[in-house]
Amino acid sequence: MEGAVDRQELIKAIDSFVGSLSESKRQLFVRRYWYADSIAEIANDRGMQEGTVSKTPERTRKQLKVYLTERGFEI
């Protein structure tokens, strides 16, 4: 039972973090890590440079790690 509660708390924390992102960062993050879209595909669709598409979700992922660690989750 405790594992299910911990999982729900983790889901809530991730949802809160993703919800706090700007629309642009949220879209890049979700497309890259939820839908596993390629960097080239996202860059082409959004008219962005691949370097930007690569770095933005990567930085956001690192911010998520800090966010979760600060809330007591072991990553």
Keywords:
4 helices; mainly alpha; elongated; 75 residues
Note poorly predicted spans. none
Q: What is the β-strand count? A: 0
CATH fold-level name: Arc Repressor Mutant, subunit A
What about the largest sheet?
none
Provide the number of structural domains: 1
Radius of gyration: 14 Å
Structural class: mainly alpha
Shape: elongated
Work out the strand percent: under 5%
CATH architecture: Orthogonal Bundle
**How would you name the CATH homologous superfamily?**
Winged helix-like DNA-binding domain superfamily/Winged helix DNA-binding domain
Distance between the termini: 21 Å
What's the CATH first level?
Answer: Mainly Alpha
- Summed over residues and divided by their number, the pLDDT gives a mean of 92
Question: H/E order of the elements?
Answer: HHHH
Q: Helical residue percent?
A: over 70%
Total of DSSP H or I helical runs spanning 4+ residues = 4
Describe the structure.
The protein has 75 residues and is mainly alpha-helical. The chain has a single domain (2-70), classed as Arc Repressor Mutant, subunit A (Orthogonal Bundle), CATH 1.10.10. The chain has helices at 2-20, 23-33, 39-46, 50-70. Helix 2 (23-33) crosses helix 4 and helix 3 packs across helix 4. The mean pLDDT is 92.
